[in-house]
Specification:
Length: 165
């Protein structure tokens, strides 16, 4: 049985525009307070396409003001990252690094070579800092309390400094 079947089914039921908007919102939220947030400037105005053929989903983003924004699928993309859901899942969960996925052709990069390489290097360098994120999202007063809640709740923690995935 395909362990990604529930996710695949959901992806096939909803239009790509909804997936794109959801992924952009989640990604933009997660990068708040992270180093990567300030590194997106290099990609300003770039149209990035994520293609997941085994689900039939194609997501289209434009980087604007250091944020991912949904953009029209009818516009030409600058960079396309293509791969099956399992490859994107392993990348998101840090089960495999981007280099391994790209070199083993589980993920493919196409388009503007400089931008594509920059994206691959960004993905490779991502280190999620929970404290920085909580600080950026909740501020000085609330961040320490949220951190304590996460540390004391086994459902909310995976290992020190990381969020459950």
């Amino acid at each position: 049985m395909n362990r990604y079947l529930p996710i695949t089914a959901m992806l096939k039921l909803l239009p790509d525009a909804i997936h794109t908007e959801m992924v952009a919102c989640v990604a933009n939220q997660l990068i708040r307070g992270q180093v990567i947030e300030h590194q997106l400037g290099y990609l300003e105005g770039k149209h990035i396409c994520l293609s997941i053929p085994d689900t039939g989903v194609t997501l289209h983003f434009r980087v604007t003001q250091q944020r991912l924004r949904r953009c029209s699928a009818h516009l030409p993309w600058d960079v396309r990252i293509r791969g099956d859901l399992s490859a994107f899942w392993r990348l998101a969960n840090r089960q495999e690094d981007p280099d391994t996925l790209f070199f083993n052709r589980k993920l493919e990069l196409e388009g503007d070579t400089d931008a594509a390489l920059y994206i691959k290097n960004l993905l490779d360098a991502v280190e999620f800092d929970l404290d920085q994120h909580l600080q950026a999202v909740a501020g000085d007063r609330l961040a320490p309390h949220l951190r304590k809640m996460i540390e004391h709740n086994p459902l909310l923690r995976r290992s020190r400094g990381t969020l459950p995935v």
